[in-house]
Amino acid sequence: MSNLYLLTTSLLTGGAMSAPPPPPLPANPSDSLSSLLVSTANKALEAGVSHKIVPTLETTVETSSPQFSSQWQKRSPTKLLKYQQVKYQQRLPNYQPATPSPKSGTELYYQRLAALRAGKLYTRLPAHSFSSFWAKGLNHKGVPLTKPTYQQWKQLLAQEARAVAYGQGNNRLSMVVGDSLSLWLPAQGLPKYQLWLNQGISGENTSQILSRLSAFSQTRPDTIYVMAGINDLRQGKTDQVIVNNLRQITRQLRQNHPQAQLIIQSILPTRATAISNQRIRNLNQQIAQIAQQEGAAYLNVHKLFTDTKGQMEHNLTTDGIHLTPLGYQVWQEALQYTESLIAANRARALSL
After folding, report:
1. Residues with Cβ within 8 Å of residue 52, at least 6 apart in sequence
2. Sheet of 223-227, strands arranged across
3. Could you tell me which residue, 16 or 118, shows the higher pLDDT?
4. In a 3-state reduction of DSSP, which class is residue 9?
């Protein structure tokens, strides 16, 4: 086993890291997806994004495996993690992605809505896609965009989930579930040999996430990544409420998606003075226990974001809680390693 996988193992503990292949979808999944997009997305689009787009389908993914440099594989797990942290600290804190992308939740909402109507999964598109529908907070007619409500966000994510459920075909699917941290996870840095479905909504606490798990219960993910709890802390919820909700989330996801590999991620550290990092560390210990008890895996990404004082690294956060592009790059690499480990274990199981 390579050092790359050993590093991931040091971050990942808990349930078995393999899942059987999903059952095939009904015939002509492409036609089903196109029909669904036309019937649902057209109703949801507001006047500001009613520009006609020819519905198409694009769910085919690359079959090549992710490539990693020999530089990573020559290092021991301990040295690799240390090298990784030093590398992140030395990068410029004002690092920005090369291509323009939505900067507000409103812009992101209308980009995803336009992609949905076009019959495309937004996580498969470049970050600047459909810019005429959201760039600078204006639609294609130059009219300011209307801020979507929480209910509209829930409807959009439910529609995306329904579209993927109909159009997944034989493609593998990974899903992220959570709050604004998950919502803004850039798909461009994630493995491209599978589909990704983002089910994060800004501001959600664990109770709200628990209440909408049924919205994507018909999907067939191979892997589900859950990160939640930081908004509960901001809203004054007790540790018991957070732990109980995360346990219920884990159980319901296991029930809804018995074939999926469920991965519960740690709560990230903060630089917000109102939230105790010691409390977060204590909660993460309980979250790890929940994962073990409920047959899920636990991914400790907390350690990748922590400085010597136990806070979030200053160049990984914009405001003490939310992540910079560099912070998301740290998270993306952890997910890439995890996906590689899952793929390796799956291949080994099939060869037996």
Report:
1. none
2. 12-14, 297-299, 261-265, 223-227, 173-178, 195-200
3. 118
4. helix
Is residue 295 classed exposed, middle or buried when 0-12, 13-18 and 19+ CB atoms within 10 A define those classes?
Answer: middle
Q: What is the pLDDT of residues 94-145, one digit of tens each?
A: 445 556 889 999 999 999 999 999 999 999 999 999 999 998 888 878 889 9
Residue 133: both structure tokens together = 């529908």
Which tokens sit at 51? 């520009």
Sequential DSSP letters for 305-329: HB-TTSSBPGGGBSSSSSBPHHHHH
At 223, phi and psi to the nearest 5? -140, 140
Q: CA–CA distance from 132 to each of 39, 104, 111, 118 (Å)?
A: 23, 15, 9, 14
- In the chain, count H helices and then E strands: 13, 6
Closest CA to 209 of 146, 289, 265: 265
Distance (Å, rounded) from C-alpha 300 to C-alpha 144? 41
9-12: long-range contacts (C-beta < 8 A, 24 or more apart)?
A: 9/77, 9/341, 10/77, 10/81, 11/299, 11/300, 11/301, 11/303, 11/304, 11/334, 11/337, 11/338, 12/263, 12/297, 12/298, 12/299, 12/300, 12/338, 12/341
The reported pTM is: 0.77
- Phi-psi domain of 191 (left: phi exceeds 0; alpha: psi -120 through 50; beta: other): beta
Q: What is the pLDDT of residues 19-39, one digit of tens each?
A: 333 333 333 333 333 333 333
Q: Which fold has domain 3-351?
A: Rossmann fold (3.40.50)
